[in-house]
Amino acid sequence: MRDITNTPIKEKMKLTEQVIKSFRAAKTFRENTMRINSLDFSVQGDTLISSSDDESIFIYDCQSGTPKKSLNSKKYGVDLIHYTHASNTAIHSSTKVDDSIRYLSLHDNKYIRYYTGHEKKVVTLCMSPVDDKFLSGSLDQTIRLWDLRHSVCLGVMHLPGFPVANFDPEGLIFAAGINSDTIKLYDLRSFDKGPFSNFKIEKEARDMNIEWTGLKFSPDGKYILISTSGSMIKLVDAFNGNVLHTFTGHSNIKNIPLEASFTPDSQFVLSGSSDGKIHIWSVEKGNKVAVINSEHTETIQSIQFNPKFMMMASACHQMVFWLPHMEE
Length: 328
Description:
- By secondary structure, the protein is mainly beta.
- The protein has one helix and 28 strands.
- 2% of the residues lie in helices and 45% in strands.
- Strands 1-28-27-26 form a four-stranded antiparallel β-sheet. A four-stranded antiparallel β-sheet has the order 2-3-4-5, with no helix packed on it. A four-stranded antiparallel β-sheet has the order 6-7-8-9, with no helix packed on it.
- The radius of gyration is 19 Å and the shape is globular.
C-alpha cells in the first residue's frame, strides 16, 4: 500500500465528488475471525484502532497500511473502542462479566481505571474532542457523563428508548437523542440544569418502526447526523432541528446499527450497507454521489474517514483501507 502521508486532506488534494467516486480498496486485512464492532482513528490520523466480537483489539499503521499491534480482552470482551487524547490509551465497553467501561493502556495492555454504574449493555460511547470527558449510553435507559480521571460519573440522565449522544466539535455542548424523536442539547458547564434546547423531529410513516442508533455532529458543527436501525439516515440542522435531508438507498436487512460518518470537510456522508457496498451522499444537495463496490462479504457496520489524510476505513469481519485512485 502506498504511503498516504503525502496526501493531507487540507493541503494537497481537495475532496470533490470526482475524488470521492475514485476511492478504491487499497488493502484488506483479515486479522479477525468475527465481526469488527467498532473502529476509531487517532486525532493525528496516523493510526486506527479496532475492536471485534472475537475479543481482540488491533492497531493499524495508516501510513504503511500494516497491522501495528494486537491486544486481547478475553476476560471482559470489547466493543465501542475509542482513543483518548493520548494515542497510547483507549476506552471501551465490556461484553462480558459486567457493563463497566474500561480505560486501557495500549502500551502494556493493562487497565488504568474502570467506570461502573450502567446496569445493562453500553451501546453509546464517545470522547470529548477537547478534554478528558466522555459520554456513555446504556440499555438501562441512562446517559452518563464521565471524566477519565475519576471512576465516579459526573452526571446521569434518565431517558426512554435507545440512548444516543455525542459532543459538538468544540466540546462545549452535547446532544442526546431521546425516544428516537427528540434531540436535547446540553451545556457541559450546566448540564444538571437540563437541556437548553429541544428539537422534536417529526416522524414520517417510514420512521415508525425504526430506532435511532447513532448521533454525530459534523466537524464544522452545523449539522447532526442520525443513524438508525433501518435503511435511513437523517441530516438535521444543529441550530434549529430542521430535517434537511433523509439519506436512503442503502440496505439494512438485519435492522442493526450501521455507522454513518461525515468526511472531515463536512461535505459528504458515508454509510455501509448489508450488501457490502459503501454509499456516499452530498450534505449540501442531499443526493447520492457514489455507491462503491467493495471486497466486504458481510454487512459493513463501521465506516469512518481519516481526520487528517485522504483515506477511509470500513469494516465487517474484515478491515478495508480505501484510497483515491485518480488518473495522473
